Amino acid sequence: MLIQVEEKAQGWRALAVYANGDEVLLFVGRSSTQVRAGFEDSFKEQLVEDEQESVVRIRLQQWQGAPDAGKWHDKSDLKNPLVKAKEKLERVAA
């Protein structure tokens, strides 16, 4: 018997990857659009400055398969908010 507890599954997530290979979950959402819109705030709120600087990649992943028998698949990389801020500062300074 399948008991569904959500109207729609949370099928997308943003995962930060550190230089040493460790990973941390940043944001989970129902769509890639929702994750793209919310992961930056989560990045700034969850990670302290040293942790933010150690992030080398942010992966956008989608759940594929049944809720109890699937796995996460990489879809793309998301832009690191720290890198975006540095690029913006460089453009202003130029």
Q: Keyphrases for this structure?
A:
single chain, 94 residues, alpha+beta, four-stranded antiparallel sheet, 3 helices, 4 strands, 36% helix
Shape: elongated
Tell me about the largest β-sheet: 4 strands, antiparallel
| Number of distinct beta strands | 4
The sequence of SSEs as H and E is EEHHEEH
- pLDDT < 50 stretches: none
Question: Major sheet: order of its strands?
Answer: 2-1-3-4
Description:
The protein is of the alpha+beta class and 94 residues long. The chain has one domain (12-93). Helices cover 36% and strands 38% of the residues. The chain has a 4-stranded antiparallel β-sheet with strand order 2-1-3-4. A hairpin with a 2-residue loop joins strand 3 and strand 4 (69-78). The relative contact order is 0.19. The model has no long low-confidence stretch (mean pLDDT 86).
Secondary structure elements and pairings:
Elements: E1 12-18, E2 23-29, H1 32-46, H2 49-54, E3 55-66, E4 69-78, H3 81-93
Antiparallel strand pairs: 1-2, 1-3, 3-4
Can you summarize this structure?
This protein is α+β, with helices and mostly antiparallel strands.
